[in-house]
Amino acid sequence: MNKIFGVISAAAIVAAAFVYSGGARATQVPEMKPVDEPGGIASSMPGSPKRKDKVVLTDAAWKKRLTEKQYNILRAHGTEAAFCGRFHDNHKTGTYFCAGCNLPLFASNAKFDSGTGWPSFFQPVNKKNIWLRKDTSYGMIRDEVLCARCDGHLGHVFDDGPGDKGVLRFCINSDALNFTETKK
Question: Total structural domains in the chain?
Fold first, then answer.
């Protein structure tokens, strides 16, 4: 029994490291070629909301603008390991912004402890600041959450949020966010 548990635990650790390192990508995400490459996009991805303040950069510009971890999450649709993100246990009062374009996304008063290891929110600061699309990667059907200004991958939304606040749980990667504390 201990050998089986050890093998399962080792496999889970390897899988988590693979996903965190960016080795796995969501298979349904359309390939986004940089603007400066043949066949590249000059606007946002399909389904993305139209905005006057849309941020569309080349892949090289995103790599200069973001840290390696932020790029892996926001542009390569990666996922950080559970309980490792800098904001999963943040209890300060303030606002969470997109690390890619600084759009306000979530307020601390909408954050709750879901026990999943990722920052969880029951609502965004403004529904117009995010958009959703179907994600069928890893044999699951989920709703991907993206920033409405830069189309950065933020995480996923599930219908198992706190009953007293509604039913949604926005499960968001810490590396997709920046946080500004509200001074009292």
Answer: 1
